[in-house]
Design a protein that fits this description.
Distance between the termini: 22 Å
CATH class of the largest domain: Alpha Beta
Radius of gyration: 19 Å
CATH architecture of the largest domain: 3-Layer(aba) Sandwich
Oligomer: single chain
Strand order of the largest sheet: 2-1-3-4-5
Structural class: alpha/beta
Bound molecules: calcium ion
CATH topology of the largest domain: Rossmann fold
Order of helices and strands: EHEHEHEHEHEEEEHHHEE
Number of strands: 11
CATH superfamily of the largest domain: Response regulator
Length: 225
């Protein structure tokens, strides 16, 4: 479940981008100014940022520079003028790509896909995640334990994916809600607990004494390192 942070103060364009990206299976987060973009980049850990240059306060070039200091995720700049293109190319701001307004959604989505593909290749993000005898395959959406298929429902699969990607790190219920369900679904913390319970019933030898998905008191859950 890849998450894209859209940084754009024109709310109509931001919404259009979000709708189109969601239709492609991405989760989206919208920031309407540079400062909240940096906050959300830190708290939500998106996989890619679409960043408009013209923003109130901190502009896109400054946001890009600040992001680059702490992350190597792909950044696609939105520019409105040739002069801005020159800046993106000429200054060492570290953007991966840029697209000039107006642009077609097809074009943008193609750029997003390409940037994510390049990045995943660079960091060697595996299609298959393994932990002991448990194997999760993103491409085929399957989970096996000692080569035996585990029948997971889509949300259980997403939940397990997020836990495995952050193996050894405690994730709060809020973080799991955001990463698995997104922001626009009306659900509460109980949903996370219910899904964790169902997941344990399927992947733990003894669900009452979990060895894989651990409860971290006061913090949330983590996949055992
Ligand atoms: Ca703008």
């Amino acid at each position: 479940m890849q998450r894209i942070l859209i940084v754009e103060d024109e709310s109509a364009l931001a919404e259009t981008l979000a709708v189109n990206l969601k239709a492609e299976g991405y989760r989206t987060i919208i920031a309407s100014d540079g400062v909240s973009a940096l906050d959300l980049a830190a708290s939500e850990r998106p996989d890619l940022v679409i960043l408009d240059i013209m923003l109130p306060g901190l502009d896109g070039l400054e946001v890009c520079r600040a992001l680059r200091k702490r992350t190597d995720i792909p950044i696609i700049m939105l520019t409105a003028k040739a002069r801005e293109v020159d800046k993106v190319i000429g200054l060492e701001i570290g953007a991966d790509d840029y697209i000039t307004k107006p642009f077609s959604m097809l074009e943008l989505i193609a750029r997003v896909r390409a940037a994510l593909r390049r990045h995943n290749k660079d960091i060697g993000k595996q299609e298959v995640i393994q932990s002991g005898d448990l194997t999760l395959d993103r491409a085929s959406h399957t989970v096996t334990i000692s080569s035996v298929d585990v029948d997971l429902r889509p949300k259980e699969f997403d939940l397990l994916t997020v836990l495995l990607e952050n193996k050894g790190r405690a994730l709060s219920r809020e973080a799991l809600l955001r990463q698995v369900w997104g922001e626009d679904e009306y659900i509460d913390h109980n949903t996370v607990d219910v899904h964790i319970r169902r997941l344990r019933e399927k992947i733990e030898d003894d669900p009452s004494k979990p060895k894989r998905v651990l409860t971290i008191r006061g913090a949330g859950y983590k996949f055992a390192p």
